[in-house]
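ok posting inputs for the 2-(butylsulfanyl)adenosine job
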Amino acid sequence: MHDRKNVRERLERLREEINLHAHLYYVKDDPLISDGEYDLLFQELLDLEARFPDLVTPDSPSRRVGGVPLSHFDTVEHRVPMLSLENAFSEEDFFEFEKRLHRFLNSSDPFSYVAEPKMDGLAVEIVYENGIMVLGSTRGDGSVGEDITQNLKTVQTIPLRLRPGTCPELFEVRGEVFISTEGFKALNEQRIKEGENLFANPRNAAAGSLRQLDSKITAQRPLEFFAYGVSDPDSFSCSTQADLLEVLQSLGLKVNTHVRICSDMEAAAAHFRYLLDLRPSLPYEIDGMVVKVNSFDIQKRLGAKARSPRWAIAGKFPASQGTTRLRSIEFQVGRTGAITPVAILEPVLIGGVTVSRATLHNEDEIKRKDLRIGDVVLVQRAGDVIPEVIKPVREKRTGREERIRMPESCPECGHPVTRAENEVAVRCTNPLCPAQRLRALIHYTGKTGMDIEGLGKKVMEQLVSCGLVSDISDIYRLQVSDLRDLEGWGEKSAEKAVKAIEAGKTTTLSRFLSALGIRYIGEISASLLEQRFGSLARIMQASEAEFLDVEGVGDQMAESLSSYFQDPSVQAMLRELGELGVRFEEPAADSSEKPLANMVFLFTGSLEKFSRSEAKARVKDLGGQVASSLSRKVTHVVCGNKPGSKRAKAQELGLMILDEGGFHNLLQM
Ligand code: IVH
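and the output
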């Protein structure tokens, strides 16, 4: 019998050695021992662990694969949201971005950037506690992702245990999981042999692999990982992104080797051209370059907008293109009645994806591009976005091409269409147009709406066409007995759907508002409205001016909101939904505990230390609100240089008046 203490020590040694050699092999691409020698070490580990199962540790290299298949993925709330990036489509956009930074910081001092290849994979977060990997998750919607720990553990370039180094106790690293072009080809070749569907591109292959409930399948996929950031740079002793990337490397994480520190935007633009050149010869797909402000102090000052940080921008590479024939045009009626022409194409392979439809946006676009049916056209596909027709190839015209005419009546209901003066869209104005209703209902139950499971596009089409649902309230009247006998349904699926509908009755106001599909109102503006008004009743009573007073709500939105909520049939529907049990719970994040909660600021005159944008952003970060005109809701008026007449008015109203110094002190509270 082995002495347990000796076994424990031997296991510890083996793990250390295996981790080291795996790191040299996978991360450094610079192995020190042969594959055979490595296999021997691994086999010894497996044998010993099999004999002493109680000495197996969760971070043992043997634990990469294994565990029982899951029934579903749990959700994970990111401690710090995972933001996305704004796009730049040309070099000018990089310089515009820099100008915005200077304006925001109210200074034109130069600063350095880090330019990194933008990996075309999937963003994930990996959490380490005391150097041991404890959690891995997808980005999801940025706030909530899915727990894919088991799957991420199978990725050899993700260390289960970090290399010794300085690192906070709780360490959340972010990066991109991807599959190399080689790996993708090999994977698809294997799938041909096995008669499986092929993956369209490496990104889809990576996504499909991470979505496996059985991590043994994921383990067979050639997934890789590059780290590019952390949730909280403050928890590190680094002051720049460049230093951070060094530290990540020293902890055993793989970092892209084509990262450059750029002393100015000129240098970043040059790196962009360099990467564009390099792109075809890289062993993995990149779709652009990310430019990040190097200094964390400046990053902090810049902060973030709703979805993306102000301190970074993604320069996108031009999309891949191909030519094919334009066969015909289909006219689609959207949920607001807008009629969109869609190009029906002879199927063509572009960047590994078969394209047979492309958006043509609107009538003006068709005219501007002078497209005709029968034309050979240049088609572009950029990442995930819908393919686009760029232009006709005029040289290939035969003279038999036909002009494209917009329909004079709605292709779905026959109602005459109109085109408003200041609009590009041709619209069906029939409020009862079945196509519009259907689209609106699909939006309502869909992912960006109420997200009711089981009520996807196909099901909604079915429910509308068989007359069970014709408006939103009908959804909440559905019974198991209505559904179970429909084609494709049964007792179980009917029960499940009714349950999901019931559960979806309790929701948040912002989700509900964006589900309604009010023109110009999306998820972000819906949450601004929720924050400001707090209840549906108050929103229903608000005037157009009150809507306008919400920071982030412009003229079009305000007009659209007020005409929507003034519509008697909308009011009746909303009352009905209340009676059917639709309820709103408090929003998750409570800003009332923040120092500036319940305060509404109005800025007038120019500030010296801040730009207007930074000042506003700071107020919002601290839970306050910003008004754009003087009203009774304003609690604090901040007067800079030349404050104008607002100051006098504010005095009349007896409001708290601050100078820049006073405002600064308030922020420090
Ligand atoms: S930084 C807030 N760096 O691009 C910072 N992102 O639109 C956001 N991506 O979801 C991430 N390579 O999946 C960053 N070097 C890189 C990246 C990168 C690819 C992806 C990432 C993210 C998306 C942002």
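notes: The chain has five domains: 2-63, 75-316, 321-418, 467-584, 591-667. The longest helix spans residues 4-27.
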